Amino acid sequence: MEGTRVSDVAYEKIKMMIITAQLRPGQILVEAELMDRLSLGRTPIREALNRLAWENFVKIIPRQCIMVNDLSLYEVESVYQMRSALTTLESELAAANRTQEELGQLRENIERLRIETDPERRVLLDREFHRTISSMTKNPFLEAAMNNYQDLSMRLIFVNRVSLSSIDDMDVRHHEEIYRLIRDQDSEGLCRAQKKHVQDFKAKFI
């Protein structure tokens, strides 16, 4: 149990370093360096890297190296196709299963986004907003898939850091609309709004 928790910590830390481009596409990863950087043992680091390889964040070439995976334009388009397709089910389940506590989390996130001025923090708040919606589905498989597809696409924003400042007041208004539709349990309207948000996000950053 203890090992599982440590490997989860390693996974989250390495994944966030990849998402925020602290570890860049094509970079070779050395287990010993990650162990030193994260102050963790070899086993949790290795377990984390295997999990990240399964999720397409790293590529393991047996007996050669481990490197941060790159996303081709074809793969990026595929990720957005999957996000758009799964949004229908996500919207239906989130609208039906949301709790008052989760609505409060969305409301707090919007207010934090409204006043945040740091571009990187604004992007991460957008990520947090959508992860909360995914958790509302009460479907762990759908939640994991949506979170993974969002993180794969979000990497591109940090790799091309000039686009970080593009999270603006329009995004806050989108979040406000999505919040209202979830609150009112309008699954059809929510699906339309979320798909538009994803398409606008893609058009702005990709």
The CATH architecture term of the largest domain is Up-down Bundle
CATH fold group of the largest domain: Four Helix Bundle (Hemerythrin (Met), subunit A)
State the total count of DSSP E strands. 3
User: Quick one: CATH superfamily of the largest domain?
Assistant: GntR ligand-binding domain-like
Could you say how many structural domains there are in total? 2
Strand content: under 5%
Low-confidence stretches: none
Distance, first to last CA: 40 Å
Q: Count of helices?
A: 9
Shape: globular
SSE string, helix = H, strand = E?
A: HEHHEEHHHHHH
Task: Give the spatial strand order of the biggest sheet.
Answer: 1-3-2
Q: From the alpha-carbon coordinates, what is the Rg to the nearest angstrom?
A: 18 Å
Description of the structure:
- The chain is mainly alpha-helical.
- It has two domains: 2-68, Orthogonal Bundle (Arc Repressor Mutant, subunit A); 73-205, GntR ligand-binding domain-like (Four Helix Bundle (Hemerythrin (Met), subunit A)), CATH 1.20.120.530.
- The protein contains nine helices and three strands.
- It has helices at residues 2-19, 31-38, 42-54, 73-97, 100-115, 119-136, 140-159, 169-183, 187-205, and strands spanning 28-29, 58-61, 65-68.
- Strand 2 and strand 3 (65-68) form a beta hairpin.
- Helix 1 (2-19) crosses helix 3 (42-54), helix 4 packs antiparallel against helix 9 and helix 8 (169-183) packs antiparallel against helix 9 (187-205).
- It is globular.
- The model has no long low-confidence stretch (mean pLDDT 89).
